[in-house]
Design goal:
Elements (H helix, E strand, L loop, with lengths): L2 E5 L2 E3 L5 E8 L7 E7 L6 E7 L6 E2 L7 E6 L2 E6 L8 E8 L13 E2 L3 E5 L1
Parallel strand pairs: 2-11
Antiparallel strand pairs: 1-3, 3-8, 4-5, 4-9, 5-6, 7-8, 9-10, 9-11
Length: 121
């Protein structure tokens, strides 16, 4: 049973930085497909960063490329967010998929954390 717990959200001024973490447990293998998603009220959930615990490339959506950096170690994902903008305001989730690496579709992910709120204002 995969468990994901996000932390690190908060309120920050435009141009500021935050670092999110996702503690993962319950995996039965090292090569898990992971994603960072965000969802603002009234909007669809958006996949912004896709990567794998097993290594390989990290894929960023254009709106965060050059500002956000994802990393991983053991069973922790991190998302360093710099130069934050008001439009980055959203609930941020990490998610795990057993079958679809690098998919940006939320339906391809079976396990989700509870989310952590990021507000840029």
């Amino acid at each position: 049973h995969v468990q994901l717990v996000e932390s690190g959200g908060g309120l920050v001024q435009p141009g500021g930085s935050l670092r999110l973490s996702c503690a993962a447990s319950g995996f039965r293998g090292s090569d898990k497909c992971m994603g960072w998603f965000r969802q603002d009220s009234g909007a669809e959930r958006e996949g912004i960063v896709m990567l794998s615990f097993g290594g390989g490339v990290t894929s960023y959506v254009d709106s965060v490329k050059g500002r956000f950096t994802a990393s991983r170690s053991e069973r922790t994902l991190s998302l360093q967010m710099n130069l934050l903008k008001p439009e980055d305001t959203a609930m941020y989730y990490c998610a795990a998929s057993t079958s679809r690496c690098y998919s940006r579709r939320p339906d391809d992910y079976e396990s989700w954390g509870q989310g952590t709120q990021v507000t840029v204002s």
